[in-house]
Write a structure and sequence with these properties.
single chain; alpha/beta; Rossmann fold; 6-stranded parallel β-sheet; 7 helices
Length: 191
């Protein structure tokens, strides 16, 4: 029987409780063996002043998932240079782990963009997409998506960065030890 692994990609700048809840809900709903958090390279549209190093993002993810036996960090996209297309990443993951069935977890905001994804038809033959609900976005699509309902949590990394830069509390938005690391390192303009 093939191992069933979920992939949750994102900038995780920083990772927050919403990310953890989505991963745990999908893990349980689909009875996956593991969920991997996959940070991507710096997107060109992100503001540089609020960007932290890949090393710090990986450390924040490691702190966020510490103690969960089915959560790991997947750094394959950080190991490559240039633009990261999901298609290329899945090709590499399948070459590396041919006996794994991959489930790519996306929010409803990304479901809406599936027609524009690079090599989407080929991608659909290589991975199962798992769509989770997001406030103000539809999960309707012509593509074969496994839908998983998750609690509506309207937390964003942008909100957390803004609060930190304004020296406001992010308690209950990120785990305490994640917040401690952010403040210890002065990330996102925190004091």
């Amino acid at each position: 029987m093939k191992k069933r692994i979920g992939i949750l990609g994102g900038t995780f700048n920083p990772p927050h409780l919403g990310h953890l809840i989505i991963a745990n809900e999908v893990l349980q709903a689909l009875q996956l063996d593991e969920v991997r958090f996959m940070p991507n390279q710096e997107p060109p549209h992100k503001k540089k002043d609020m960007w932290i190093s890949n090393e710090d993002r990986v450390k924040l993810l490691q702190l966020s998932i510490a103690g969960h036996p089915c959560f790991t960090v997947e750094t394959i996209e950080l190991e490559r240079q240039g633009r990261s297309y999901t298609y290329d990443t899945i090709v590499l993951l399948r070459e590396r782990e041919p006996d794994v069935e991959f489930y790519f977890i996306i929010g409803a905001d990304m479901i809406e963009y599936l027609p524009k994804w690079y090599r989407i038809e080929e991608l659909l033959s290589m991975v199962k997409f798992v769509g989770v609900n997001r406030p103000h976005h539809s999960q309707e699509t012509e593509y074969p998506i496994v839908k998983v309902s998750v609690p509506d949590i309207n937390i964003s990394s942008t909100l957390i960065r803004t609060r930190l830069s304004e020296n406001k509390s992010v308690k209950y938005l990120v785990l305490d030890h994640v917040c401690h690391f952010i403040k210890e390192r002065g990330l996102y303009g925190s004091k």
